[in-house]
Amino acid sequence: MYFLGIDLGSSSIKMSVFDGDNGRVLKTISVPDFETEINAPQLGWAEQDPNLWWEYIKGGISQFKNKHSIDVKRIVAVGIAYQMHGLVLVDEVLNPVRPSIIWCDGRAAEIGRQYYESIGTEACQQQILGSPGNFTASKLKWVQQNEPEVFAKAAYMMLPGDFIAAKFTGVPQISTSGLSEGALWNFKENRLATEILDGMGLPLSKIPEIVPTFGEHATIDPAIAADLGLDPKVKVTYRAGDQPNNAMSLNVLNPGEIATTAGTSAVIYAVSDQNHMDQQNRVNTFLHVNNTELQKRNGVLLCINGSGILYQWLRKMMSLGSDELVSYELLNSAAAKAEIGSKGLRFYPFGNGVERIFDNKEVNSGIENLNFNIHNSNYLVRAACEGIVFAMNYGFDVMKSIGVSGNIVRASKGNLFLSPVFREIFVNTTKTSLELYNNSGSEGAARGAAYGFGFYKTLAEAFGDLECIEQLEPNKDLAAQYEDIYFNWKEHIKLQEI
Length: 498
Known about the structure:
By secondary structure, the protein is of the alpha+beta class. It is globular.
């Protein structure tokens, strides 16, 4: 049996075909063969066309079949991971009525803040463990207020992964974990947060059928199966946001276990069996993939928007407009040529939409202490790496303050964690052990599909064969140096100075 895993990101879509019988990935691809564009019609906005996502995924299935000679008719189930918190609005026949308002779009932050106060901060904290913030519910309200004709055309609201599932099956659905990402899950009573819908004046009719994270959600539409060359019995059996999926892919399933990523954004994701909340809403709690009525499992998430996108920006700047960009390997080697602390140069890695750690305010990036006689490009790259890790550690401090902690962190050996300098900064700043794995979100989604299909009886069985390829421990002397540098960096986190 084969299982198809899809990881719908904002810069690319990863896809894997996993052979359950052999326990190995047959092929992982990335589509399209360029970084997908994020459209910004206005400052602080971020949109993508959901139809393009679907076209890229169809093209990926064609690649598996025609370029890599994979018998896609052996695929029995599909699992979907996706960029969190986005809003996709579709009509009755599942066609988008406007571009998707994606995760880093900041237009709805003020709406979330207003309703947090009008619904009541205490009520929101008890029900959704925080503020509607800039999450999907607030984005839906923005459309209702600013695009009433579009809102009227919309039959259903979905998150990005729900849209892809609907394109496969023709059935509009949304998952419980997706509702929690959208600030629409009542953690106290384990149900749809109708109080938020009522408080915002949003109609219940826009919410499609609610399904669990795992299970036989729906069977592929026969016409789609024929078009893609798939078996007409293929089922969608798993969907989750990319960060819960990444944690699952690293076998992070139980309280005290932590996953991290440093892709377009930087994330710390810790599993807990408690309904944690931060009074300042700097970190957020969502349902983890293995949450059930009998076993509470939440994911406490810190997100820094400007991580890999800062590295992309540096890459473009150092290429001086050339069509052939310098490699990420060159950036990594440049950082290694600069000394710890970057000779006082400090980078604040914001500037990619509203930042949760700053109460969903639009925060620009910043460089401090730049000296033209001292600092070259090597120091600029290293300061960027230090700034990204320091921002992540600031979030770690917040998580510890609300009772969430752990000493071992797991990550895929990809993106910024390919950089030895970045890894050194991370373990010595956070003072944690770092375990690295060769896996991907799309492989995790494929294994999740296998579990949802019933091929695996437990998630422990689905991910039990993962092997740690490298483990890094903090160095006492280096940790002391980074502690001083981080303290100075943190002292200058003032919005008016960034």
